[in-house]
Amino acid sequence: MADYKYLIIGGGMSAAAAARGIRQIDADGSIGLIGNDINPPYKRPLLTKGLWTGKPEDSIWLKIEEANVDAHYGRTAVLLNADAHSVIDDKAAQHTFEKLLLATGGSPRRFPFDAGDDVIYFRTYADYKKLRALADTGESFIVIGGGFIGSEIAAALAMNDKKVTLVFPEAYIGANIYPPDLGAFLNGYYRERGVDVITEATVASVGTSNGKKTAILSTGQELIADGIIAGLGITPNLALAQAAGLKVTNGIHVNDLCQTSHPDIFACGDVADFYNFSLSTHMRVEHEDNALTMGNYAGMAMAGAGQPYHHLPYFYSDLFDLGYEAVGQVSSKLEAIEDWKEPFKEGVVYYMQDGKVRGVLLWNVWDKVPAARELIAENGQALGLRF
After folding, report:
1. Residue spans of alpha helices (H) in 138-287
2. Structural domains in the chain?
3. Whole-model pTM?
């Protein structure tokens, strides 16, 4: 049995930020961590971005050891007894706590059929290493999914001189985010850079033939390549919280101090459903800024110095030589007002609801995130960001 003042379930960016948050307040209290990744916490976004454009691999590590954490990597928490303040992991080891943090992240969505080892469901450092090894010898790749992971991996491989086929069921890349004309531009932009973009198609089956990976599409088309990568989004890991009787909505429900329905149990990052005051709504955010900022707030709250988490997170992406930052509710379901300095190359997209700005997409426009946050918080009706 291991007894901890603070126990963190999860080994990602939120977990690392929480450990540092605790140490800002409590230099000596024991911290335990149970993470199902075999590696210590790392900067996940670099796996689809910077590591493919020259950043060294050692730049990904978050150096959680500096927070003096007793880490148990490659383990999964399987049972949480909230009243007994105890957790049992998959090695049958029991860990007790005074304060617990659930930073359990999410698991990649998978095909509705068994793909075996024929597909890399890209999410972890191990997935990156596997794909990098394939890219060192292979020349052609099939990427499934037109969202964040799929579009970034397709661009990364193409920039490394690989033949890439990008397949997704929507009409254009980033269909859940971008206005249709921007998405249509991206389809052509990727094609100009050598990516074979196949829209409105899903994968019916995958396999291996003569040492190559094969994918049969819903259209009947057969694709053959050296590797298949799927970026289908994630499902938040809520089972531990649900089984323990914690309140679960769109995620693990937390108050503005990151507390769950149990006062000694906190949650943050991908799994936390929190109320955002700028948007006057509950939200669950699966991006780096929220993971790091909310993790830090949760850690300080666990150590007794909590501050209300009223942060409006932003997210970003890099697609070849295009890049953007986005704040608030950025959804193609909302009305979009586009303000281009140069069409589809530099501009701002405002996402509107009931005449008010709910989200801002800064397309190759930089250093405007604070102004975008302010506009949303003020329920802005005038479009006030300039280049």
Report:
1. 148-159, 180-192, 239-243
2. 2-107+235-302 (3.50.50.60), 110-230 (3.50.50.60), 321-377 (3.30.390.30)
3. 0.95
